[in-house]
Here is the input.
Amino acid sequence: MVRKEISLKWNCRYNHLYRIVIALILLLFISTQPFQMVKAFDKGDIPQQVHNAAPLFQDLLTLSISKDGTGTGTVTSSPIGIECGATCTYDFELNTLVTLTAAPDTGSTFTGWSDAGCPGTDTCQVTMDVAKGVTATFTAIEYTLTVTSAHGTIAKNPDKTTYHYGEDVELTATAIAGWAFKNWTGDATGTANPVLVHIDGDKTVTANYEEITYTISGNAGVGGATIGFTGGISATADESGNYSIVVPYDWTGTVTPSKTGYTFTPDHKDYSNVLADDPGEDYTASLVTYLLTVNKSGTGTGTVTSSPIGIDCGVTCT
Here is the structure.
């Protein structure tokens, strides 16, 4: 583009200089023929050489383009010469009608002309009867970044109400107590924290969290025991008596084992502000027994037995 600018300016100035040189040669030629000049003027006829020399003295007038506003863009001209961008001034011949066109860059809008009497945002036509300056205003589009965080906070860097096209914003999620950051969804994804969001439009990002929990585990002393605890759903010990329950961060409550026909030692355990897994929480299960006594009466003799075994009365009657 710089090469084209230099070429166009050089051609225009070269043509201007060329015309001046030709004009001087013609004037010099005319000055060597005084009698013909007087004779021609006496007849009221201006020499054709003078007519031909007139366009050689046309003026070159400078058109200057300025850009204003928060946005960016390019202004070009027809006929070619202005491409602003890089070339924001150009010399046009007197009375040239120049059409200017503004093209905003991505993330900007063109909002109008000034100093040229051109309304609106269409092309602007300028007649080069004097040197002129025209200002094109471009405005950056404002984009929003909306963040949502149910169990924590999100810090934005930089922290602004709106952003411009091409900016990068760093988001950092911080969970509240009892919760841990899990991942991002929306216009940011993955588990990296912090994460960069590239602004090329309005953006919405959500930080997701998961609740921190801890496990209390041990052996109930008997298979099939029910393990109840404050605020949770009861668990059942496996056939070997092993159990585990999950409680939330900073949990306070009571764990109570139970099974019909058994007693447990201890009969419950109390917990306060649980902040770690708690294994090895065992109980001893004892089978509940009842005393059965058989009495025999009458004049005869005999034996009483039981199933399951235990009573064999003859001898063992309790």
Summary: The CA atoms of residues 297 and 303 lie 11 Å apart. DSSP finds three helices and 24 strands in the chain. Confidence is low (pLDDT under 50) at residues 1-15, 34-44, 49-57.
